[in-house]
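thread: overnight batch results

M.L. [08:02]
morning all. the overnight job finished for the chain we discussed friday. pasting input first so we're all looking at the same thing
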Amino acid sequence: MKFQSERGEVSVSSAVFSNMAGVAATNCFGVKGMAFRSMTDGLVHLLRREAMSKGVKVTYNEDDSIDIELHIIVENGVNLTAVCRSIMSEVRYVVNHNTGVTVRSVDVCVDSMTM
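M.L. [08:03]
and the structure it wrote out:
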């Protein structure tokens, strides 16, 4: 995504949005980490901090907004609705505050729960 100003042009890659959204999501209460479903064995794997962007999908829209899809693993016993609402709000705020880009939607997919 490119931003134009009187001083020049700034390009922001999708990796920036992915990492920012992943960090914001994993800082929320009840989130164990980001998830990645392996194509070879079909199992869900917990991603390490440096690879958490694999659990995030960013889609660019024509109106210069973005859609974010997160795949997470949550801790056992948490209220899924409350955790997902918290993640949606936090990710939307962090991305908008740090980049100025409008986040149209944040979709949270709970792929697994740890025991």
